[in-house]
Structures are given as structure tokens and as C-alpha cells.
Amino acid sequence: MIRKLIMLLAMSLMALSAMATDNLIVNTESRESVSLNGTWHYILDPYETGFYNYRYKERSEGDPEAYWNRPVTKRKSDRREHGYQAPYTLEVPGDWNSQGDLFTYYEGTVWYQRDFDLHQLKKNQRAFLYFGAVNYEAHIYLNGKKLGMHKGGFTPFNFEIPADLLKEKDNFLVVKVDNKRHPDEIPTVNTDWWNYGGITRDVKLVITPDNFIQQYALELDPAQDIHQAIEENQFLISGSVALNKTAGSGTVTLTIPELSVKQRYPVTGNRLDFELPLKNLQLWSPEHPKLYRVNLAYNGETLADDLGFRKIETAGKKILLNGEPIFLRGVAIHEEVPGDARRAHSEADDRQLLGWAKDLNANMVRLAHYPHNEDMTRLADKMGLLVWSEIPVYWTIDFGNNAVLDKAKAQLQEMITRDRNRASIIIWSVGNETPVSPVRTSFMKSLIDKARTLDDSRLISAALEVHYNPETNRVDDPLGAYTDIVSVNEYLGWYGGTPDMCRTANWEVAYDKPLFISETGAGAKGGFHADRKTRWSEEYQQWYYEEQIKMLKRMPDNYSGVAPWILADFRSPKRNHPVYQQGWNRKGLIDDQGNKKKAFEVLKQYYREIEKETVQ
Ligand code: GCB
After folding, report:
1. Which of 188, 192, 477, 570 is the best mutation target for the ligand 1 pocket, counting ligand atoms within 8 Å of the beta carbon and taking the most?
2. Under 8 Å between Cβ of 490 and 460
3. H or E stretch covering 348
4. Residue 1 pLDDT > 50, yes or no?
5. How far is the CA of 45 from the centre of ligand 1 (A)?
6. Three-state DSSP class for residue 399
7. 519 lines ligand 1 (CB under 6 A)
8. pTM over the 0.85 mark
9. How does 548-562 read in b/e, with b if 16+ C-beta sit within 10 Å?
10. Long-range CB contacts (< 8 A, 24+ apart) of 353-359?
């Protein structure tokens, strides 16, 4: 009992430090808001003339030539050298690359501008500008004043609008967006995906009471034994609520109508921790993605969320979901709509991608290589797909640089804060194929520690590499000592050799932990048919999958899942074969027109067999 109390105290202290450090507002969907999506003006500014003066110094706030200031000409003799007007417009949300030839390869600064009115703000309400994601660096200006700057292309952020800055009419909002790559950013200069720039996700004004719930988390108590809970029909939910500031006094009311729960919790500081015993809870799983409507009411605002409750853990060499071994029938997905060659950004886009994953008989998706939009993980909750969610710590990050580590930590925290209530997410990944060295391992280890401090209810991993060897392929990356599951990318038969090499391949893992094949795949140009030995043909890819699957069936007994690379072809500037690639990574099971390649059926069949064997 005392041990449990100490653990609870430690957990809530951990959660407190996690939540107190950032001001991200979660579940904006359920709050009063005004969408700022739509048509924005832009100025393409490769020399950053709107930001730096001719001495290359950042312009001062009131500088009429700064692009954050409304361009005005009072007299016809006035000189003005910029302006926001049609037809120079871009749609938000959306990457700029797919919105005109001018932008296809553009990397640099684009200024976005729009006006908005806000009549309905009442006394004692606050207004925040909320961005789902802007790639990569965003400077936000309202009515000539800078609200802040954010780095990180795939996570949300918000800035409060000072009350005296906001007008009822004609607020002049400007966002400087810069997607230039840099060696000391996350990701760094080298990636195998398109560097889509722009305001790629929703923008809105979020209106809150003066004192409001900023973040919350409700989950099955990770310390509870799930078998016992099921047997005794006695579940424990641990909950926490973080307010934006200290409450004088107040009450948070929690209701879960379907379970007849109504609890009132007094709150005096800026947070609340509680435990809620529950009976008759239906656990969330891919086969039964049960969600409960949960309402949290405080100070006149009610946040509604659809939450699933489930337990994910490992036991020796197995991954357990709700206490039972589970095999992850996965597939990797980039946040891209292949048919349109653009970033996915809506629920309809996500429905298409996750619908394809379902069609493949998958029960899991690896959202590569960065956090996808919030619609995606919410939809995965509804559709019953387990999720691996990752930060873009990819390949050769500047591991020795503490400022870079801080940037990675910030993105990790934003990802976890936004999505920690999603039952579908079972794995936080701290990176992909990072090259082994002591400095890299210590960098990655501190990300793992941070992830655990923020959320101790999920598994932590990272996609590692393998030492190929004709005798035995060995997975012994030292980082494997710190992750909950050992995940490895392998391309036997594509990078090096041909698929028949799989026949004699043996595998060894240095850790007594579940083994997950986080990537495997081969390229094929959709519609190109030849004999199976011909690279880029659908037949080669099909053969690759056939040989891989036979090999996977011989994997060591800790083999717990696979997420082939990748669901659909995606754009990549690194893929320059003039006939077969044309700027596309062709390892998709679905081509750039949405057609399934032959290998799709091979994997689907494998998954059907596993499903029959493993799912009652
Ligand atoms: C990998 C990377 C992935 C690449 C893929 C490929 O190992 O993790 O980002 O796109 O290989 O196609 O080579």
C-alpha cells in the first residue's frame, strides 16, 4: 500500500513537471473556436527582405517595410515595395509545393497574411492563435506585433493574443513561414521525403475562459494488474488535469454518461490528480475499438472527448495488449496523398490512408517519420488501428549539440501532450536509423527518458539498423538496451543482393525483448510488368515480399510484428531514376495513382493468415 502511494506520488510529480513546462492547449476541437482556414495572401520572399533590412539586421517592429506591417500608401508619391493581394493566394491548410509550379521545389520564406474579425469575445475570455502545424519555422505577427516563434514542422503550438491587441474588425495576421533545411534542426538537411513547406494544418482562434483546462490525461492506471482488473471487474483510471493558471477555487466535473459516472473534484492549485474506480469497462482493442464519451467541465467550459481504455506492456519477449499477446500487423505511412502529390491534412485524406491499411488486414500503422495530424490519430482510435508515432530525429542529426537535443525534446513533448489520450497510440518512437556512436546513444537515451517521464503508460522505441552478415544478421545496437521493444529496419533483397538471399538468412537479437521489423520493402513502378528478376517491376516487389514473408516465419521467437515500407508511393527529391522513380520513392504497395501493386495482395494474405492464427 505504502509502495503504491509512493509510486502514485512520484507519478503525479512526474506528470506535473511534464505538464507545467508547456502551454499547449489540447482538444481544441471541443472548444469555442473560429477557423482561420481558407484563402490567405502570400509574398514569396527568398531573400527575406520583409524580415531583414539592407544591412541584414532584423527589421524593427514599426518599420513600414517589414512585411508584418500592413502596407499603406497615403500619397501617390509614397514608396511601397510589397503588398498582399490577389491573385497571390494560397489555401490553408495545405503545403505550398502542390499549389503552383512556382513552389514545387521552393525552400525558403513565404509570408502568409489574412484579416479576421472577432466580435464575440466576452469579458474574461482569452483568445489564442492555434496552429496544427507549420513547416518548419513560424513567426507569428498580429496587428504589427510579434506574438512568438515556433520551430518544428509537425506539431501544434499556440500563442495568446494580448487583450489590448485584439480588435473587433480587420485584425492583420501575418505568418512568416520558412522551410529551409539546416544541419542543426530536427529533421536535419538529409531526409528521404519531400520538404513540404507552408501552413500545412488547421489554423484557428481558440477562445477560452480566463481560467481553463489546458491539458488533461485519463488512462488505465499503468500500475494496475490488468488480469486481476478483468477478473475482479474492478478497473482504475488515473486522471490528471492541468489548468492554465492557479484556480482560486473551483470544481472540475467529470462525467462518463455510458458508465453512469459523475464526479466532482475540487481544485485549488493549477492541477488536479485523481483516481477513479470503474466497473464494467469494455477495453479498447483493434477488434473492439470501444470509445467512451468523457466530459470534463470547468469554469463554464466543457471539454468532450471520446476515449478508449487499454493496457499496453511487454512481458519478456511478447507485446501484451490488455494482458494478451498481440502480433502487430503493421504498415508504414507518410502523411501524403499520392494521387495529388501533397501533404494529407483532413479527415477525408486520413480515411483514405487508414482505409487502405484496413484493406490490407493491418491492425497497426507506423506513422512515419514525424507526428501526423490530430485527425489521423483520432481516426485510428475510431477505426481500431494501433499506432506508432514518431519524432523526425532521422539519420544524421547533430547529436553532439545540446540545443538540438532541446529541439528534439520540445517536439517530443508537443507530440505526447497533443496525443496522450489516444488509445490507438501504443508506441512513442524517438527516431529512425540514427548511426551508432556514444554521443548519439546518449542523445537518444535522454529522449527515451524524457518520453517515459512524460508518459509511462506506453512503449518506447526507435527504428534501428542491423549488421547484415552471411551467417547471421545481428541486431545489437546499444540503444536496444533502453527501448521497450527492439525495432529494426531491414531490406534484405533490395539494398544489397536479391530476395533469394532471405532463404538462408538467420537472425539474432542481442536483447531479450520483443522484436519488431519496423521497415522492409522494395521499389516497383506501378503498372510496370516484367519477370520477377527485373528491378522496379511489380513482379520483383512481389517476389521480395514472398521471400521476406518466408524468412519472417523463421524469425526468432521474439518476433512480434512488422510494418513494411510503405503503404503508398511518396515524393522524395532523392529518388532520381528518370524512368522508374521520377522524384518518387516507389516502395509503396499502392502507386502514385492509388492503384494497388501485386505485392499488396501478398502482404494482405500473410496478414489474413496471422489474423486467423492469433485473433479469437
Ligand atoms: C529507410 C528509411 C526510410 C526510407 C527507406 C527507403 O530505411 O527509414 O525513411 O524512405 O529506408 O526507401 O530507403
Report:
1. 192
2. no
3. helix 347-359
4. no
5. 32
6. coil
7. yes
8. yes
9. bbebbeebeebbbbb
10. 353/567, 353/568, 354/379, 354/380, 354/383, 354/385, 356/567, 356/568, 356/590, 357/331, 357/333, 357/385, 357/567, 358/383, 358/385, 359/604
Cell numbers placing 334: 507518410
Give the C-alpha separation, 368 to 388, whole Å. 8
Nearest CA among 131, 189, 187 for reference residue 155: 131
571 in contact with ligand 1, CB cutoff 6 A: no
* Architecture of the domain whose range is 327-522+532-567+584-615: Alpha-Beta Barrel (3.20)
Cβ(433) to ligand 1 under 6 A?
yes
Helix (H, G, I), strand (E, B) or coil at 184: coil
Q: Which CATH superfamily is domain 31-209 in?
A: Galactose-binding domain-like (2.60.120.260)
Helices (H), 477-569: 538-552
Helix axis angle, 438-454 to 2-20, nearest 10°: 110
pLDDT, tens only, 338-350? 999 999 999 999 9
Counting every residue written for the chain, the total comes to 616
Measure 432 CA to ligand 1 centroid, in angstroms: 9
pLDDT of residue 11: 45
Tell me if 428 CB under 6 Å of ligand 1: no
Number of C-alpha atoms within 13 angstroms, CB side, residue 155? 27
* Every domain of the chain and the residues it spans: 2-24+218-313, 31-209, 327-522+532-567+584-615
The Cα 351–Cα 337 span in angstroms is 11
Residues 111, 117, 119, CA angle at the centre, nearest 5°? Answer: 155
C-beta 565 within 6 A of ligand 1:
yes
For the Cβ of 585 lying below 6 angstroms from any atom of ligand 1, the answer is yes
CA distance linking residue 54 with residue 71, whole number of Å: 18
CATH architecture of 2-24+218-313: Sandwich (2.60)
Q: What distances in angstroms separate CA 357 from CA 60, 194, 364, 380, 384, one per listed residue?
A: 51, 22, 8, 10, 11
For 122-144, b/e burial (b = at least 16 CB within 10 A) is: eeebbbbbbbbbbbbbbbbbbbb
Residue 329 β-bridge partners: 562
Which residue has the least CA distance to atom 13 on ligand 1? 192
Q: Which of 56-60, 379-383, 440-444, 495-499 has the lowest mean pLDDT?
A: 495-499
What's 185-230 look like in SS3? CCCCCCCCCCCCCECCCCEEEEEEECCCEEEEEEEECCCCCHHHHH
Ligand 1 atom showing the smallest separation from residue 572 Cα: 10
Query: Is 365 a residue whose pLDDT tops 60?
Result: yes
Regarding beta strands 301-307 and 312-315, do their DSSP bridges make them parallel or antiparallel, or are they unpaired?
unpaired
The predicted structure's pLDDT at residue 384: 98
Angstrom distance (rounded) from CA 250 to CA 183: 48
Average pLDDT value for residue range 556-580 = 98
Domain 2-24+218-313 identical in fold to domain 327-522+532-567+584-615: no
Q: Which residues 6+ apart lie within 8 Å of 198 measured at CB?
A: 90, 92, 94, 95, 96, 97, 99, 110, 112, 134, 135, 177, 179
